[in-house]
Amino acid sequence: MNSEYYQDTTFNSRKRYHLSPESGDNNLLTKFLKSGSRKLPFSTPTNEISTRVDTENKPGLIERLRKIKPELEPFWHHEELAIEKPSNYFQIYHLISVLGKGAILIILPLYLFVCIFFGLVSESSFIVGFNEVFLPFLKWLFIPAALLWLQAVLIDRGYWTPTWIMTSKKVFTLNRKTGMVTLYKGNGKVRYSHPLVEFDCVLVSTPSQQGLMNYSLMLAHRYNGSTHGIPLSLLATPNESVSEYYRIWNMILCYMDISQPLPDCLILEESRHLDPVTAEYDKKTGRNPRYWRDMSEEEYKAALEAIRNKQQGKPETGPELDIFSEAV
Fold first, then answer.
1. Positive or negative torsion for Cα 240, 242, 247, 250
2. Position 161 in a domain
3. Which residue range is the domain that position 139 belongs to?
4. Residue 175 counted as domain residue
5. Are residues 144 and 289 in the same domain?
6. By the 8 A CB rule, do 263 and 252 touch?
7. Cβ atoms < 10 Å from Cβ of 255
8. By C-alpha distance, which of 82, 63, 35, 56 is closest to 269?
9. Cα(266)–Cα(18) distance, rounded to whole angstroms?
10. pTM of this structure
11. In 144-287, which ranges are E strands?
12. Is 324 contained in some domain?
């Protein structure tokens, strides 16, 4: 273990911590458990990954981003996982872009049909009747809508980044090198920061208006009584299955546990060699350093599907681990 690289506050599943497992005056945890939510235990991390985390990234996209913006850091690397929330301006901009796409794909074909109909029934020539109805909307609606959609496509593929609107603020960070979990306020300032071992992971269940159960994943600090938790659910799409939330928790434990290599997934592959434990593991196992990144999109999709099929019926996490017991 590289003691010079990792700090004393890191999480190590092979250690035993002299911390009380009692929750104390934790309003958030008490509230969750009273509502029927369940506390997920610390467990020995396994190499199982959640295929629902970082679904937007593809091997080709990462390679394009590296060529266009080599200085750009991914949201998740060997030292830190940083979840950010886009500004309100960008969310409005993104909504308008989606409406632009809808206008081109749905409204434009319907409107063309209407214009052709009016062109046919027009008392003047077909061309004159068609142009009178179509050209004004083409100029003032469909061309702007197409430009908005094009901008969204360029942003999504990494070819353009409008920094004037793509500002964001951190929601929370998980730091493998220090073991610290940090939650931020809406203004970007730190709300609190504590070691991972001081948090309880809770699978929060809330009934919907239709009577169905919705789930989310949260870290609640055991001691400070804060009513604000770490929303781990932001790592994946909303309302995942219960088993997938267990896999996300397992993946987080694997990432934060310095006795284990980094989770073997696309987003973390390019920084694996920078983490001492992972670099040593990859050297011993002879892992291909570009296993994920050299895949085509079709191969990547097939690899994730194979992982999902293999996970069926398997435990989502390793054996439960009492990190608060004395080492034997």
1. positive
2. no
3. 89-156
4. yes
5. no
6. no
7. 24
8. 63
9. 36
10. 0.77
11. 168-175, 180-184, 190-195, 199-207, 213-221, 230-231
12. no
Tell me the sheet residues that pair with 231: 218
- Tell me the pLDDT of the chain (328 aa) as tens digits: 566 899 999 999 988 876 655 555 567 877 777 777 888 999 998 888 999 888 878 888 777 777 777 777 889 999 999 998 866 666 677 677 777 777 777 777 787 777 777 667 666 666 766 667 677 777 777 778 787 777 777 766 666 666 556 567 889 999 999 999 999 998 889 999 999 999 999 998 887 767 677 888 999 998 877 788 999 999 987 778 889 999 999 999 999 999 999 999 999 999 999 999 999 999 999 999 999 999 999 999 999 999 999 998 888 998 888 887 654 3
Instruction: Give strand ranges (E) for 198-277.
Output: 199-207, 213-221, 230-231
Q: What are the counts of helices (DSSP H) followed by strands (DSSP E) for the chain?
A: 10, 8
- Taking each helix axis from N to C end, the angle separating 297-311 and 59-68, rounded to the nearest 10 degrees, works out to 130
| Alpha-carbon dihedral 21, 25, 27, 33, rounded to 10 degrees | 40
Amino acid (1-letter code) at residue 82: A
CA-to-CA distance for 137 and 118, rounded, in angstroms? 14
DSSP track, 277-322: HHHHHHHHHT--TTTTTTS-HHHHHHHHHHHHHHHTTS-SS-SB--
Give the residue among 27, 21, 12, 16 at the shortest CA–CA distance from 41.
Answer: 21
Residues 326 and 328: their CA atoms lie apart, in Å, by 6
Judge if 129 and 182 occupy the same domain. no
Tokens 């932001």 correspond to: 234
Burial of 160 (0-12, 13-18, 19+ CB in 10 A): middle
Tokens of 235: 């790592």
